[in-house]
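Review form for a predicted model. The reviewer records the input and the model, then writes brief findings.
Reviewer: anonymous (R2)
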Amino acid sequence: MTVKLQDELPVDHRLATVYRAGAGFCGLVLLVFGCLGFADQLRFFDTDGSRIAGLSTNGALSLISVLVGLTLIGAAAVGGNLASTVNMCVGVLFVLSGFVHLFILDRPANILDFSMSNVVFSFVVGLLIMTFGMYGRVTGGLPHDNPYWRQRHPEKATSEDATRVASKASGRQPLRRAGS
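Model under review:
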C-alpha cells in the first residue's frame, strides 16, 4: 500500500490550520532574524560574535534564516499536507543542526558563528516546528475519524462506515469507542 501525502487530508480539514499557523509563525520569526542580520550588514562568514536578538550570527546564517523562513511561509501559504511535511522536515533539520553545532562550537568548522544560545534555539525551534508538523498526524491514539487513521486502516474505516450507515438507517445510535 502506498500512501500519497497529498491525498490523506481534505483541503478544508481543521488540522490544516495548525500546520499553516505553525509554518507561518516560525517562518516569520526566522525571516525577521535573518533580515535583522542583513540590516546590520554582517560579513558572510564572520565569526567575531555579532549578536542579534541574543543569538550570534553572520551573513551566512542570516541568508539561511531568510531562505528557511521564506520556505516555511510558502508552505503556510499552500497549507495542507505540504505545510505539515515541510514543518516536519525543517524541524528535523533544526534539531540535527543543533547537534552538529554542539560538537563544532569553538572550532574552525563553526562557519555560521553558532554559540550555545544558537544551539538551544535550534533545538527548541526544531522541536516546535516538528510538533506543528506532526500534530494530529503522528500518534498511536488517533481517533477513528482522523483522516490519517483512516488512510492507515482502510478496512476498519470501511467497516466502521458501513456500521454507521446501517445504524442510521435503522434509527439506532452506533456504539462509540472510547476516545473517539
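Findings: The chain has a mean pLDDT of 80.
Further findings: The radius of gyration is 22 Å.
Recommendation: see findings above.
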